[in-house]
Structure formats: structure tokens, C-alpha cells
TrEMBL record:
[4Fe-4S] cluster 2 binds at residues 258, 261, 275. The gene is moaA. It comes from Pelagovum pacificum. Coiled coil: none annotated. Its cofactor is [4Fe-4S] cluster. GTP binds at residues 17, 66, 100, 160, 263-265. GO terms for molecular function: 4 iron, 4 sulfur cluster binding; cyclic pyranopterin monophosphate synthase activity; GTP 3',8'-cyclase activity; GTP binding; metal ion binding; S-adenosyl-L-methionine binding. The lineage of its organism: Bacteria, Pseudomonadati, Pseudomonadota, Alphaproteobacteria, Rhodobacterales. Monomer and homodimer. This is GTP 3',8-cyclase. PROSITE patterns: MOAA_NIFB_PQQE, RADICAL_SAM.
Length: 334
């Protein structure tokens, strides 16, 4: 289907990421402060509203939907939403529905996700050391996530691991994480830490481990072949010739990927952010609630896309955190 959503820079919007909750059962140090205040329930879009919203985007040409959060699998009754969205997979309108999760609830939900048409998932895991895992997630426990990974693979879901690259934290686990993923047939993507949200006392620059360094360390042990970008997203991929696995690098800080950006994000309260790195956003909840017909909503979506900025302004190059945005990653969904 031709996309009806083309932004002022001629980028067709095909990819929607939706945060279904701002809550989480972890408190990762780079993502949340220990004492987070969450939104009152009435602020959140209901599951029916989320369905209407996502379906409107699908009608307008979105082909890929990623469900995120907060932790999407802690939203009450979220499987009702997944089951309902599966009609768009069955009709062929949606090519893929996928999820980014911390893995804590996968043991419970992996089979249901597969049954709802989900085939690939991203699981965030920064370390294979139980003590370090508890430290970085504050509330998480590694064995629970490991059981979740087992359940996901057993259910037939293809798993990609996402690890945030953190200096003096997991820089000694580059090879262990690579081996772990190779053994389990999983791709691995490294993410540079981004300056988002007030997270307490953590030192953002102290956390920053450049992916240029990750890449050159990998190149000492493996033969890296660059792969063409087929995602339109911020990840660049290489193949490790020795294992065949794909390793991704999400480098919003050291490389600019905005020119091929085909995505927008919607928060759990129905705000649309057309750029992860900018404060500008529009409200879709009021148009959603103002009328049971979807014409007003579709107009609001088109109007928001017409304001999509050219790119973000994150920059660490002057040794200060420029371009910082005040909201947490869990608000917009990573
Ligand atoms: N709770 C789910 C999870 O952890 O996968 C989904 C939401 S989480 C906000 C999405 C991704 O954002 C995770 O991979 C997480 O590691 C990443 N993330 C959170 N805060 C970040 C930050 N400040 N910089 C870079 N990545 C971040
Ligand atoms: Fe929760 Fe994901 Fe943020 Fe960790 S990164 S606190 S798991 S939302």
C-alpha cells in the first residue's frame, strides 16, 4: 500500500513504535531514577484506544509496529491488545508486529505472543553476570530473564539481544555476550547510552562507551563484514564471518542516521513524537477521544507528520551533554 504519511523531507512513515505503559518492574540506572512517579491510570490510553490508534496508522500505510514501554508486558491484559492486532497481520496490512522487552515476563507470555503473530522480539540484557544485572536493573534478577529467553526460543520467537554499552560496566563482556548470542542463534545489538531524562546521580559521560571502540575491539577477534542497511533505522549491522551472527550498532551520538528515518513514536498517553531526540510532539489523545469516527484522528496524525523535524541534536563531542531531552526513554519507548 502506498503510504499516506510522507513527511516534509519526503520520508514515508512505515514504522510505528508505541509505548503501552510508562511503568516497569525494573529500574535500570540509565533509564529511570529509583523513585519514579508514574502517570495516573486515567492518563493512559485504554487498550481499545491503543487499538484504534494503531489501526489508524496501519490504514495510513504503517507496515511495522513495535510495542514498547516502560515494560510492555507488565501492562494489564496486554495480550488482549496483541490478539486484537493480529487481524492486521492476517489481512497482510501489517508485515510485522514486534516487541521490546526486558524479558522478565516472557516465561508467561512467549507462547501467547507467538500465537498472536509475533515472530521476532528484542530483549534488553546488558550483562550475563547476576550480581551486575541486579546492580544495573536495581530490581531485576537474571535467572528470571534467562528463563524468559528459554521460553521465547522454545515458543519459536526469534530473539535479538539489545545491550547498552556502558563503560566500566560491560566493556569486559564484549566477547562473553557475543559467544552467548552465537551459541543461541541470536543477533546482538549494542546501543550507545543517550542523554534522556533525569536519572538521579548517574554520570552520563562516565557511562558513555563509544561503539567505535566496541567495533574495533570486535575486529581484533572476528572478521567483520558490513551489511547494507535494510531497516531504515539507527542500527548499522556487521556479520561476524566466524559465527555468521549479526551484530548491530545503534549510534545516535557518533553517527547521524536521521536522513533515512521512517519511524514515529507514540507514548502511552497518546502523544506522538516524530523524533526521539527532539522535544516537539503533538497530542493524539484529544482527537481520539473527541469522536468515535476516526477521521479527526487521521487528520491529527497527518498534521503531526507534517511537522517531523529533519533530525536530532544529541552531541557529546564537546564533552558536555548537548541536545539533552528531559523525558525518560521509558516515556517515549526505546
Ligand atoms: N522495558 C523494555 C526494555 O528494557 O527492553 C522496553 C523499554 S526500554 C526504554 C527500551 C530500550 O531502551 C532498552 O533496550 C533500554 O536498554 C534502552 N534505554 C533505556 N534508557 C536508555 C538510555 N538512556 N540510553 C540508551 N538506551 C536506553
Ligand atoms: Fe524498565 Fe526497560 Fe527502562 Fe530498564 S530500560 S527501567 S527495563 S523500561
Amino acid at each position: 500500500m502506498e503510504s499516506q504519511l510522507v513527511d516534509p523531507f519526503q520520508r514515508a512513515i512505515r514504522y510505528l513504535r508505541v509505548s503501552v505503559t510508562d511503568r516497569c518492574d525494573f529500574r535500570c540506572v540509565y533509564c529511570m531514577s529509583e523513585k519514579m512517579t508514574f502517570l495516573p491510570k486515567k492518563e493512559l490510553l485504554t487498550l481499545e484506544e491503543l487499538d484504534r490508534l494503531c489501526s489508524a496508522f496501519v490504514r495510513l500505510g504503517v507496515e511495522k509496529l513495535r510495542i514498547t514501554g516502560g515494560e510492555p508486558l507488565v501492562r494489564r491484559d496486554i495480550m488482549t491488545f496483541f490478539r486484537s492486532m493480529s487481524r492486521h497481520i492476517e489481512s497482510g496490512a501489517l508485515r510485522e508486529i514486534t516487541i521490546t522487552t526486558n524479558g522478565s515476563q516472557l516465561e508467561r507470555f512467549a507462547d501467547d505472543l507467538y500465537a498472536a503473530g509475533v515472530r521476532r522480539i528484542n530483549v534488553s540484557l546488558d550483562t550475563l553476570d547476576g550480581e551486575k544485572f541486579a546492580r544495573v536493573t536495581r530490581w531485576g534478577r537474571l535467572p528470571q530473564v534467562m528463563r524468559g529467553l528459554d521460553a521465547a526460543q522454545k515458543a519459536g520467537l526469534k530473539v535479538k539481544l539489545n545491550a547498552v554499552a556502558l563503560k566500566d560496566f560491560n566493556d569486559d563482556e564484549l566477547l562473553t555476550l557475543t559467544h552467548f548470542c552465537a551459541e543461541r542463534g541470536m543477533d546482538l545489538t549494542w546501543i550507545e547510552v543517550m542523554p534522556m531524562g533525569d536519572i538521579g546521580n548517574e554520570d552520563r559521560l562516565g557511562q558513555y562507551w563509544s561503539l567505535n571502540d566496541v567495533r574495533s575491539q570486535l575486529a581484533r577477534h572476528y572478521t567483520l563484514t558490513d551489511l547494507p542497511d535494510d531497516t531504515g533505522g539507527p542500527a548499522r549491522y556487521v556479520r561476524l564471518e566466524e559465527t555468521g551472527q549479526r551484530i548491530g550498532f545503534i549510534t545516535p551520538l557518533s553517527h547521524n542516521f536521521c536522513e533515512s528515518c521512517n519511524r514515529v513514536r507514540v507514548t502511552c498517553t497518546g502523544e506522538i513524537y516524530t523524533c526521539l531526540g527532539q522535544e516537539g510532539h503533538s497530542d493524539l489523545r484529544a482527537p481520539l477521544r473527541s469522536s468515535e469516527a476516526d477521521a479527526t484522528l487521521e487528520d491529527a496524525i497527518r498534521a503531526a507528520i507534517a511537522l517531523k523535524p529533519k533530525g536530532h541534536d544529541f552531541d557529546y563531542s564537546r564533552q558536555t551533554v548537548d541536545g539533552r531531552v528531559s523525558r525518560h526513554m521509558s516515556h517515549t519507548g526505546g
